[in-house]
Amino acid sequence: MTRKGIILAGGTGSRLYPITMGASKQLLPIYDKPMIYYPLSVLMLAGIREIAIITTPEDQPQFRRLLGDGSQWGLSFAFIEQPRPEGLAQAYLLARDFLAGAPSAMVLGDNIFFGHGLTEVLAAAMARPEGTIFGYRVSDPERYGVLEFDPDGRARAIVEKPAAPPSRYAVTGLYFLDGAAPERAAEIRPSARGELEIADLLSGYLAEGALTVEIMGRGYAWLDTGTQGSLLDAGNFVRTLQQRQGLQTGCPEEIAYRASWIDRNQLFALCECHGQSAYAQHLQELLRD
């Protein structure tokens, strides 16, 4: 079956209060684009065109207004409500009907990935029948699910927000899993903090040898925009990249056009929608190329 995508863009964003008291975190700007454009672009780079977007009931109208039904980018969107945030693994329960037994790639709505060769890494994960997750070295692993390695360097456990981290490698917010993920998630019991932990779901796959762990090395950037500081860092990172290279990152129109999901006339129409902005100028350059 064709792999489907999930973007988890729910939650209250309380760590960013008061910024997120009137708007969803995933709709905040990261330099020149809404935050959700970046995780959406990751799924698009993987070749995924059927995507469920999980939001709070209150925020869903804003997401629909921003993203439409996806057809403008050659995609198909389904919108799913998350009444209460009850852990990352809850996303698989909410998306059970949407997935209908298909394998999935889920990305967290506040995660940004960048790196030369990212498309090839995603293609490899798409092709594996087993699951794939990605580890990334961080300076503050206690904030994340952390990989524990055996003496031979193989991942053997995932520990959620440990006080004494077994390594500096965090599990990023990008998960490729098989069609059994919703059923497995249904068997998880809530943790002490009352959540269905993604670490528990992934640990089951890992124990069975059904999970590949890819380490993203120095050539990659993974940004988690969950705090005010990391939000600012992400915006500065994107600004520096784009101004230095004259290229866009996290641009759904460009990905769709280069993948031939939309044609030149459709790109021109999208360009017109953005007025005289710098974003529109980039799309005009695509048309000239």
UniProtKB/TrEMBL annotation:
GO molecular function: glucose-1-phosphate thymidylyltransferase activity; metal ion binding
EC number: 2.7.7.24
InterPro entries: G1P_thy_trans_s, NTP_transferase_dom, Nucleotide-diphossugar_trans
Annotated ranges, domain Nucleotidyl transferase: 4-238
Keywords carried by this UniProt record: Magnesium, Metal-binding, Nucleotidyltransferase, Transferase
Reactions this protein catalyses: dTTP + alpha-D-glucose 1-phosphate + H(+) = dTDP-alpha-D-glucose + diphosphate
Organism: Pseudothioclava arenosa
Cofactors (names): Mg(2+)
Function, as annotated: Catalyzes the formation of dTDP-glucose, from dTTP and glucose 1-phosphate, as well as its pyrophosphorolysis.
Family indicated by similarity: Belongs to the glucose-1-phosphate thymidylyltransferase family.
NCBIfam families noted in UniProt: rmlA
Name under which the protein is recorded: Glucose-1-phosphate thymidylyltransferase
Matches recorded under Gene3D superfamilies: Spore Coat Polysaccharide Biosynthesis Protein SpsA, Chain A
